[in-house]
Amino acid sequence: MKDPSRSSTSPSIISEDVIINGHSHEDDNPFAEYMWMENEEEFNRQANFLLKQFLFIAQIEEELWEEEFIERCFQEMLEEEEEHEWFIPARDLPQTMDQIQDQFNDLVISDSSSLEDLVVKSNLNPNAKEFVPGVKYLNI
């Protein structure tokens, strides 16, 4: 039996555009798509320029991401500070000399009987030599 697709009759041409070897009949130069190679040096210069621009933009974008990340970290740190009431010197330390003196007076032991109790209950040696920083003591 004969294969109907292999008939010996010539194929009918429906349109006027005949494509032979991937090129239309109207193309004068079958190598038109490769003509850019004629100016390959200019093409390479443009490609290098575009690549440099792309790398520059990528670098700027990375710097912006880093700045945004650092800003978010600072914001989270500030929120955490507000949440936990951390020690903030500007807020928590006294500002005037009177306030410092008041705090110092609160630390002074004013009751003499409690001072004597401290001395009696102490484990320190009252006959020990006075400590002087930087001096080595010899045990004889």
UniProtKB/TrEMBL annotation:
Annotated GO MF terms: mRNA regulatory element binding translation repressor activity
Highest taxon listed in the record's lineage: Eukaryota
Major location category of this protein: cytoplasm
Location relative to the cell: Cytoplasm
Family: Belongs to the PAIP2 family.
A biological-process GO annotation: negative regulation of translational initiation
GO cellular component terms attached to this protein's record: cytoplasm
Listed InterPro entries: PAIP2-like (IPR040396), PAM2_motif (IPR009818)
Pfam families linked: PAM2 (PF07145)
Protein name: Polyadenylate-binding protein-interacting protein 2
Keywords: Cytoplasm, Translation regulation, Ubl conjugation
Purpose: Acts as a repressor in the regulation of translation initiation of poly(A)-containing mRNAs. Its inhibitory activity on translation is mediated via its action on PABPC1. Displaces the interaction of PABPC1 with poly(A) RNA and competes with PAIP1 for binding to PABPC1. Its association with PABPC1 results in disruption of the cytoplasmic poly(A) RNP structure organization.
